[in-house]
Amino acid sequence: MTSIDRQRLNELAHDCGIASIGVTNAEPFDGLGDLLAARIKAGQLRGLDWFTEERARFSADPRNLHATARSIISVGVPYRMAPVACPDDEPRGTISRYAWGDDYHRTLKQRMRELHACLERELGYVIEARFLVDTARIVDRAVAARSGLGWYGKNTLILVPGHGSWVLLGDLVVDIEIEPDEPLRPKCGRCTACIDRCPTGALQPGYIVETPRCISYLTIECRGAIPHELRPLMGRWVFGCDDCQEVCPYTGAASTDEDADFEGRALDNIYPRLRWLLTMTEAEFRETYRGTPVLRTKRAGLARNAAIALGNSGSDADLALLEQVVQTHDVALVRGHAAWAMARIDGAAAAPFLRNQFAQELDEFVRGEIEQVLGCSA
Questions:
Q1: Which of 17, 69, 157, 338 is the most exposed place for a label (fewest CB within 10 A)?
Q2: Residue 264 CB-density burial (10 A; 0-12 exposed, 13-18 middle, 19+ buried)
Q3: DSSP E strands, the chain
């Protein structure tokens, strides 16, 4: 089959709203399966129970997903919007930038489908393709690195020239030969800003993330209680974390990319009111975050995260609301974290209420949380 001129491919991608691309072949990724399996065994991916050793090895060969694959177009769509300032003194949490606007899974797949259609028109024949974004069994970052889209930063994210790590990744797997690009040379040098900045110490030398300590994991993937020792380190993050990106010199120098699909719809999609998150109904949660990545954490997870954020940033003025949450919230997970937040803000002031609540609470998790924050048997 006739392939396509590389410059022309760049032009078509740009026309489809894709700022950066790299191309690699569909051969297996040497050593990737063994590397991922070793990290699973070392507990560095603990909590991601769906990411098994079998899945890791499967992911190392793109043809397991698309038997006729010959090339992979690694797609990069930047999402660094202009900064948004908080307009008031309302206690607010922080949502990671990639989740301010529309769900990137749909956006990237739509743009890759448009690029696929452009390729078919350009070449004049049907092209078999797969459109992969994050959830499929392929390692997006490995594809991006081998394709020359960017290089691995020490925070394990892909750094794309001109955009830093503010880039969403997708993979367009096709059954045509396209001349591959060369991988880029990593340019982090001796810089360890991202490792030094990580609030929980999740980032380790050697391009390693200790997943169970990562704030993005804790606020999104973790469904249960967040370890007590990590809660004070989470600041105001309620969905994801951008700390390691904010301090990266390459990301700091990145251009602002105005893209309507990734703009925050309202302030609660960027800096949500913590008091409201703690009392929101299921309908309010779904209405506010419909069509955005935030739905993934579910109402209970977002309210749990809000309790921690309020505990880290609130004042005595928030104790009355937290009392209400501890007494009446329908999810025990949230009640327990709200009890912790009360003690975090003012343990002495919260103690009489928490002791009284312990005597009334029937849920063992909540009782355990109260016992722990009181520092003795209630």
A1: 17
A2: middle
A3: 20-25, 71-78, 94-95, 129-132, 151-152, 158-159, 167-174, 203-204, 208-209, 237-239
Tokens of 17: 């709203």
CA 126 – CA 136 distance, rounded (Å)? 23
The 3 state secondary structure assigned to 324-358 is HHHHHCCCHHHHHHHHHHHHHHHHHHHHHHHHHHH
Q: At what angle do helices 319-328 and 298-313 cross, to 10 degrees?
A: 150
Residue 201 Cα distances to 157, 222, 236, 246, 306, angstroms: 16, 17, 17, 16, 21
Tell me if residue 124 falls in helix, strand or coil: coil
Asked if residues 201 and 187 have their Cβ atoms less than 8 Å apart, the reply is: no
User: Which tens digit of pLDDT belongs to each residue from 36-47?
Assistant: 888 888 888 888
CB count within 10 Å of CB 141 equals 15
| 263-to-82, 84, 144, 151 alpha-carbon distances in Å | 9, 10, 24, 26
152-176 pLDDT tens trace: 999 999 999 999 999 999 999 999 9
Check residue 262 and report its DSSP letter: G
Catalytic residues: 134
Domains of the chain, residue spans: 6-81+96-174, 193-252+263-374
Could you tell me the CA-to-CA distances from 186 to 150, 179, 191, 258, 311 in Å, in that order? 8, 22, 12, 27, 40
